[in-house]
Structure formats: C-alpha cells, structure tokens
Amino acid sequence: MARTDKHHTHTYDAQGRMTCCALENKIYDNAGANDIIQDEYHSHDHQKHGSHDHDGVSIIKAFLPGVISFVLLLTAIYIDNYNKSEWFTGWVRIAWYAVAYIPVGYPVIKEAIVSISKGEIFSEFFLMCIATIGAFAIGEYPEGVAVMLFYAVGEVFQTMAVKSARTNIKSLLDQRPDEVTVLEDNRPQRVKAQNVKIGEIIQLKPGEKLGLDGILLSDIASFNTAALTGESTPDTKKKGETVLAGMINLNTVSQVKVTTEYTDSKLSKILELVQSATSKKAPTELFIRKFAKIYTPIVVFLAVALCFVPYFFDAGYRFSEWLYRALIFLVISCPCALVISIPLAYFGGIGAASKNGILIKGSNFLDVLADIRHIILDKTGTVTEGVFKVQEVVFNSKEDENQLLPMVDALERMSTHPIATAIHHYSGNAGKDIKLENAEDIAGYGLKA
Fold first, then answer.
1. What is the SS3 assignment for 165?
2. Are residues 192 and 155 part of one domain?
C-alpha cells in the first residue's frame, strides 16, 4: 500500500528526482526491508526484537483500506445491478463510489502530486490516477474503484513477498549474540555486544557464540566455525590467534580480547554484503529501469492519441467512448508490473536461497548462477552434515570389548569434542559406573585420567 506515514520526509537526488518513494522502494519500506536495499550499512539490531509481535497487526493494517473499499464496491455493484433503489442515484451514488475509492486512491494521488512537484511526472502513481479519475469523469465509477483496488492489493501482496524474503535472509544472517560476558575487575558482567569497546576482555563459556572479533587470551580452545566458513570440523586456536564473531566455543571456558567494534566484525561484513545485495543490479534490472523511463511517457502520449486522433477519421466519434478506450489502454500498459516484477523476482530469489542456507551477494550473481554447468565444492559440511559417527570398532576378542569399551566411554564422556561425543554415542552408557580422577583434556592430543 502506498505510504501513509505523515511524518515521512521525501528524499531527492541532485536533479530533484525522488529517491525514496519509487514503487520498488515503497514496497521494500512497507515490508520493513529498507535496510536490505540500502547502499550503506545500518545496524540491524533494532529489527531483531519485537518484529514478530507486530506481524499480524501490520498485515491487518495493510489490508484494511482494501477491505473497506472492496466491501463498499461490492455493496454498490449489488445495489446497481440486483437491488435497484431510487435513493441510490445522482450525487448519492457518486459519493458512495468516491468513499469506496478514497481508502485505496488517496495515498496514490498524494504520491503522484508530490512526484510531479519534483519533476517526476510520468510515474506509475500518475498513470493510475489518470486512469481511475478518468473513469470517474465518464461515469464508470465501479471500474475506477476496481482498478485502484486491484493495484493497491497487488502492492500489499508484493510487500508480503518482500517481507517473507527479508525474514529468510535475516534468519540466515542473524548469527551474532545480543549480549556477551565482559570481565570487569575479574568479575563477569553481561552487557550488550554493541556496547563493548576495543580492548575489553570477553569470557566465553563452552557452547557460547562469540559476539565480536578478537584475540584468544587462553592457552588453547576449539571453535565451531561453520557460521563463517561452512566447515563443520572444529578449528583449534592457540593463544594470540585471531578468533571471529560467530564462532562457537566448544570445550573450555576461554577469554578473548576484543580487537574490533561490533559493526566492524567479519560477520557484520557478511551481513552488509547481503543487505546491499539489491544495489548490485543484474543487467536485466538495469535495462528495465532505463526502459521504463522511456516507455512510460510513450504510453501516456499514445493514450492521448487514442482518445483524440479518431476524431479526424471516425464520423460517429464519441469522446466518452474513445476516452474509455484510452483509459483501458493506459491501465493495461501501465509499467508498474514490469518495473516491480523483475526486481521482486531477483530479491525473492535471494530470499529463497537464504532460506536454504545459501548467501548470494547480489542479483547480478543470480544471473551468473543461471549459466553454471559444473560445480566443484568441498564435501564436508556441504554435501555431508559433517557430524562424526563411529561405524565400526574391531576388537581382538569379546573380552577386550567388554573391558575396553566401558573405560573408553568413561574417559570420552569427560570431553565435548565432536569425536569424543561420537565415541560416547556409539558406546552408550557402558562406562557410567566407572569413576575417573584427575581427568584432563589435552587439546590436539586427547584425554588422560
């Protein structure tokens, strides 16, 4: 639906062309996806909370003007055709259809006026206004309301499609924890990750995700780096090595010294790449935008010609009849579907890929992917899940199995290493009754007790 926010301020470029309220931008904005089409990076934290709480309300609010117009339109058509009444004539009938038109038509008319005042005359809003107001002018009130109603409902569905794609992208990229544990005078304090300063020390518990890039202060630690590299094999880091936001600590409590701010982390850069995805236009998108700037004025002039030129060739020329035909031509030829469908298709493709765990940096890369004939990829964590599982253990005898398996299980259950976990799952609870003392996990070597 067209913007109705009274506090919104339009933005324009150096030539006075509107940069905020083209139909594509409007749909992204209504979907809460403005951050995804921005060229500059903006923090997404304000969108992480409470967005789902208002989804139902926003959908109802988006459809409400259309529902009101639809009900009024159906009522008027019913009275016109099936239950003719004397009172439903003249100005009453006109007023009824006008009221039905206003909820869906007023926002579009408003945007058309603002666009014209800044030099953007031939916009999709202007074309819809000409067509629908023209229908009213020749007495075709139901058609005028219906055309604007279908246009408005189409915008709502496009907004919902963008919102769905946005949700898919956000769910894939939302890897950063909101809060981290910072050591202040050797006392752990939970603070917002975005407030942590460079040089502060973060304490990371086993299973906890790192919120900012830094340097490992602990002697050694193992991390799951799948969120950044796609590799499921644990990466063992030693003291002084770089660790990145999004890595998951696997075994021991570790300490990390922060080296970059929250918005400058490597994971933030990944987020930025996809947020600016639609700024990397595919050739098809670039062409259609240039084409629309030429096509739209031509459509308007052809519609005017269709209305007036027949006067010189048709002896029975009737202005209202040819105006009606010109308006039909204008609605059919309106470029809004053309201008929106292509960017929306690319954006939907990026969102669909994100839903399946694939990051695509821009719509131009979708075109490249369409031409791929052969793919070479890493097996672990890509073709396979990368989860260790014991297939078979060979013992010299049954006695060795009964003696060794419980001891191995008792030792391996002391570790959270993926291989140790696989061994424990294989052996079950064979070693649950064995008590170990002085168990020690030696990273890179194994266990002893």
1. helix
2. no
> How does DSSP classify residue 356?
T
Range of the domain at 422: 398-448
Nearest CA to 41 among 244, 263, 219? 263
| 445: number of Cβ within 10 Å | 8
Catalytic (active site) residue 378:
yes
Closest CA to 361 of 284, 278, 286, 277: 277
Q: What are phi and psi of 104, to 5 degrees?
A: -100, -25
Q: Using a pLDDT cut of 90, give the percent of the chain over it.
A: 15
pTM: 0.54
Q: What is the pLDDT of residues 138-167, one digit of tens each?
A: 888 898 898 888 888 877 877 777 677 667
Q: How many domains does the chain contain in total?
A: 3
Of 178, 219, 314, 378, the catalytic one is: 378
pLDDT at 27: 47
- The Cα angle at residue 234 between residues 230 and 235, in degrees rounded to 5: 90
Task: For residues 77 and 28, state if they share a domain.
Answer: yes
Q: Does one domain contain both 248 and 295? A: no
Q: Are residues 244 and 223 in the same domain?
A: yes
Which of 340, 364, 388 is where one domain is finished? 364
* Distance separating the N- and C-terminal Cα atoms of the chain: 67
- pLDDT, tens digit, for every residue of 288-347? 767 777 888 888 899 899 999 999 988 889 988 898 898 888 878 776 666 667 777 777
